[in-house]
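Work through what follows:
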Amino acid sequence: MEWYLALILLLGTVCIAMFVGLPVAFAFFAACVLGTALFIQGDIGLTLMPMEFHLSIKFVLSPIALFLLMGEILLQTGVAFKAIGAIDRMIARVPGRLAVVSIVGGTVFSSLSGSTIANTAILGSVLLPDMHRRGYQPAISMGPIMAVGGIAMLIPPSALAVLLASLAEQSVAQLLIAGIVPGVLMAVLFFAYVVGRCIINPEIAPAYEPDESQLDSPIVVAVNRRGRAIWSRTYDGKFLRITNRVLPFVFYIFPLFTIFIVVVGSIFFKLASPTESAALGCLAALGVSYFFRLFKSKITITGIDGADFNWREIWKSLIETAKINTMILFIITGSLVFSQALANSGATDGLLRQIAALDLTPLVVVIIMMGVLLFLGAFMDQVSMLLLTLPFFLLGEASLQVIFKIDVIWLMVLMLITMEISLLTPPFGLLLYVMKGVAPFPVTLGQVVRSALPFIFIEVMVLLLLIFVPGVATWLPKMLN
């Protein structure tokens, strides 16, 4: 069979299976069985499939489960919600205040959860009702929440970054570090856009006087076992207000930064491997959650409650992590065996030989690769598009990355940004539907898409910047060498 017929057959099987509603993992399994039966003659091919499944599960994938667990602990114990409340208290009178809160809060939560869906769902459920009540237009209320939700794909810990580096057999640590600068750059540009647009057109985010009555309330910093205050101060004027703004940051935001420092710092200073740093991050998340529980009955900050920490919440975190990780492992095994089927059919080598024969420059090849990902991202989820393109882009000595000698860390960062953009591109951008689902007011998909367009443009600008100035993404991971 010609290579192009084999390529159409195998890719078509996957796409048709997903189109009719088959789970992603089983869509790959179907193509694997078909490819193995056709291109590896006899029963030996089907006999080797279970062995390939077993070999595809490697210890290097363990950071995915641990990073997921870290985010689930912070989510189930309510720490994330309290952090957003503390950020809301800190940010006072700025144009588009609640939209700015969503950007800052989303960036903080991105550095802790690694989940784009959780980031968008939490910010949407917490902030959108208040935005709607205060007259914010959908264009400035929904867009920032969706855009900052995608940053979780870049800022460590990112489960997708770990998956990409693991499957490509590249350094997980370098890719995690490489995502920091582009992620922070996007957050800064989102911030600047929101503030600038609200200055030019204040009607889209009506200004209001924040309820600062809580800032004039007594600061109760300790209570006895009977719940009576044993240390309380009721300063008048500016000092009380400043203290009531700073205390939430000290008790709810600063401890969260310790988790980020533990995870990223241990990798950056080569104190731990990515797996060990993920485990340390889980311990840090447990420690921070316990800190909030320990002081919940001893410290009272007016207007902000403590977090819940008990064995029930930890059990929920473990169950949710197991569910998501099982799904990811099934997808990984199916995709890796699918890559073997493509290789055995000759489709991978045939397509790559045709591209190599075009005598293109590496820059043009990278642009074509990003274009392919943007096209696929409009119709399928990020994991599926990643696993479909990896055999051609990164896997093996005959991949485009090897043929054209492209910096692998730079290429993987570009792929992550492109997949982040695809979260917002219609018709099937995942975060578009998440936002439509959590919106507390009637909204059409068209309104959701229009609110995302300016932020898609910003993300594309960052992608182009990294394409033409690779050092933006590579200078920080090079410091690890």
